[in-house]
Design goal:
Chain B: It is found in: Periplasm. Chain B: Its main location: periplasm. The complex is a heterodimer. By secondary structure, chain A is mainly β. Helices cover 12% and strands 45% of the residues of chain A. In chain A, the strands form 2 sheets. Chain A has a 16-stranded antiparallel barrel with strand order 3-4-5-6-7-8-9-10-11-12-13-14-15-16-17-18. Chain A has a two-stranded antiparallel ribbon with strand order 1-2. Chain B has 9 helices and no strands. The interface between A and B is medium-sized, with 31 and 29 residues.
């Protein structure tokens, strides 16, 4: 056994040294991830602080990640290592809620294949190892699967005096609604950019707000005119068949797990962008209409209909030494339970649900975030979030910690984050979630005596990209 | 016979010259096409349409001196410009282009019409004008001596007219701190005060 451990340890050392040598080798060009190596530019050229994009970063993304020189080894890595602490991490039975709190843990590591393929084709594929995936017994296990992915084919044309781009257009295949968007007010790359692993989540969220990530294939086209008007149309379908690599690693066989869409579901996006001095402003709208099977393992039943309509805005002032940015979005979702509700009413719910008590509900999420950075190194962010919707005891029933005593999905809170980036690719962060209302109430929200504030969470995290 | 041979030689030489010139022109045209694409699709993201940048982090390049532009591209490549922005934004971009493209880009930006100046505080601009045209006795020679009466630049000496004031101040500090390899300019402005930098930058931006 000792011998075995020693050889594992020796093997680990050799692998570790090999990795270091490789990092040293690729770092020799520029000690930054794949795109930085491709363009030779620093992270700050494209990011306010990763992953929030600068105006140039937006152009780089819309240009299909094709600016620069194709790399022989277009790889990058990312790891997160942190400590999570929940104010009261015991439920009313004294059971631990969030596993592995109050101790440093490697939460996740990713490998990216990212970059230019030709002058018109580029993209990125992220593969993530989640070290703290939860199993059915409530413990943690290691699990790997595909993460955000975006592949593009683009084209451009110049204006008549050959001074600027008139049209920038492209085609994208991706696996998470809004991951293709270039403004950080939309959900996929909205704040918070990373969250405590297995943190306590509120009962309700709109479908556009992350619920379909790594489950769908989005195929869409966009045009960006005169760097001012952006229009996109994308269709989302469950990533089956040819598209199944886009959801690799997802458990699609457990009822009540991931979501399953029927057919191709439309998503649209219109944004107006303006830049002046060190400032940029965007106001926009986006939305989608989804047909969703009530039970993801029964793709033959009638479907419920979800209509999401959102408005968003972003302002950025990027200069030296002061940088400040603001993002806002409101997503309003109309949930039409045209399949679930009659079935529930008739006493024969479809599969495991949902089993709504109303024929239709609405759910509205507001998110606002303000960030300040000094020398792109020392940052502070305040975010406010609010989700309010129709009371529906069928969807939001009582239950210790995760439930709602009054059937309301209403959750209000704030996030304070402090960041220090000693290197452009290393973020040391302190994040605090405070809840003033959780699943419908401030006190005894779950019917088991738990106040919303018990879910307040502190997250200390080291986030490295290379 | 000898005359005929000699005439043939002349004709051949002439033809060669024509072909060589045509080939040269062809490659210049090809470089110019690449430069137009680069300038309008990549450079314009920071330096603005036709080199008329919007953000003061990035200099305006429209109407800039061709020789100066070529020299700066070489300086970014060689590390002669060592300020943080040069490393973060320009080092990688310039290492991707060859000398012919660099020359074509310089030609492109030099022929773009420079944007009109932007005026700010009149007192600041007046003080800056005095410094630019007359210098400071025993300390700073008049800037106009090299940069031209209207700060239009001259060959290796850059055009400064209409440039973003914060960019000019930043570069003066960078040269003062020897982060940008410019020994002559360093010697001239080594005693320039921050106030004087603001004054001359306000004046130059207004031109």
């Amino acid at each position: 056994m000792r011998h075995g451990l020693a050889s594992v340890s020796r093997g680990g050392w050799i692998a570790g040294l090999g990795l270091l040598a490789w990092l040293g080798f690729i770092g020799a060009a520029h000690a930054l991830p794949a795109y930085a190596r491709q363009t030779g530019q620093a992270c700050v050229a494209c990011h306010v602080s990763f992953p929030e994009l600068t105006p140039y970063g937006r152009m780089f993304k819309l240009s299909g990640y094709t600016i620069g020189k194709r790399q022989d080894l277009p790889l990058a890595t990312m790891a997160q290592f942190g400590v999570t602490s929940v104010k009261n991490n015991r439920d009313d039975q004294g059971q631990k809620i969030v596993p592995k709190t109050n101790q440093p843990v490697l939460s996740a590591a990713s490998v990216f294949a990212a970059g230019k393929i030709t002058d018109n084709i580029g993209g990125w594929i992220q593969w993530t190892y989640n070290n703290l995936a939860t199993d059915s017994a409530g413990g943690t296990v290691g699990h790997s699967g595909i993460d955000n992915t975006d592949l593009r084919v683009v084209g451009r044309s110049e204006n008549t005096d050959q001074t600027d781009m008139r049209w920038l257009y492209g085609f994208t295949i991706h696996n998470n609604p809004t991951v293709q968007d270039v403004w950080n007010s939309t959900p996929a790359f909205g704040f918070p950019f990373t969250v405590p692993p297995n943190g306590i989540a509120a009962a309700a969220a709109t479908l556009l707000d992350g619920a379909l990530a790594q489950q769908v294939a989005g195929t869409g086209g966009y045009v960006y005119w005169n760097r001012s008007v952006y229009v996109e149309l994308t269709g989302y379908q469950t990533a089956d068949g040819f598209f199944s690599p886009l959801r690799a690693g997802q458990d699609i066989h457990t009822a009540g797990g991931v979501h399953r869409l029927s057919g191709v579901n439309p998503y649209w996006r219109v944004a107006y962008n303006r830049e002046w001095g060190s400032n940029s402003l965007m106001v926009g709208t986006y939305g989608a209409k989804f047909r969703l099977y009530p039970d993801n393992t029964m793709p033959f039943t009638p479907t419920d209909s979800y209509t999401d309509i959102a408005v968003d805005a972003q302002f950025q002032h990027i200069s030296d030494p002061h940088t400040y940015t603001f993002q806002f979005t409101r997503i309003r979702e109309k949930q039409d339970y045209r399949a679930s509700y009659p079935a529930t009413l008739a006493g024969s719910p479809i599969g495991v649900g949902p089993t709504p008590a109303n024929a239709d509900d609405t759910l509205t999420t507001d998110k606002f975030k303000a960030t300040y950075y000094f020398e792109r190194k020392y940052g502070a962010t305040l975010a406010l979030f609010r989700t309010h919707g129709t009371t529906d005891p069928g969807l939001y029933g009582p239950g210790s910690v995760g439930g709602s005593a009054n059937g309301s999905p209403d959750t209000d809170g704030y996030i304070v984050e402090l960041d220090y980036l000693p290197l452009q690719n290393l973020r040391l962060m302190l994040q605090y979630y405070g809840y003033t209302k959780f699943n419908g109430a401030r006190s005894n929200y779950d019917g088991s005596g738990r106040p919303a504030g018990d879910n307040n969470t502190l997250f200390v995290n080291v986030w490295l990209v290379y | 016979m000898t005359r005929v041979k000699s005439r043939c030689r002349w004709i051949s030489a002439l033809l060669l010259c024509v072909v060589a010139t045509a080939a040269g022109a062809q490659s210049t045209i090809a470089s110019d096409d690449v430069a137009i694409k680069l300038a309008s699709q990549v450079c314009s993201s920071c330096h603005g349409p036709g080199g008329n940048s919007i953000s003061p982090t990035f200099p305006k390049l429209a109407g800039q001196q061709q020789a100066y532009l070529v020299a700066q591209i070489q300086a970014f490549k060689s590390g002669g410009r060592g300020e943080q922005e040069a490393h973060d934004y320009m080092l990688g971009m310039t290492t991707l282009i060859d000398d012919a493209t660099a020359a074509a880009l310089a030609r492109y930006f030099a022929r773009q019409p420079p944007p009109p100046g932007v005026s700010t505080d009149p007192a600041l601009m007046a003080a800056g004008r005095k410094l630019f045209t007359q210098g400071v006795a025993d300390r700073v020679v008049p800037c106009a001596n090299c940069h031209g009466d209207r700060a239009q630049g001259n060959g290796i000496f850059p055009r400064l007219a209409g440039q973003h004031a914060p960019y000019i101040v930043r570069q003066l500090k960078v040269i003062q701190g020897n982060l940008r390899n410019s020994p002559v300019m360093h010697g001239i402005i080594k005693d320039l005060t921050p106030e004087e930098m603001n004054e001359v930058a306000a004046y130059l931006q207004s031109l």
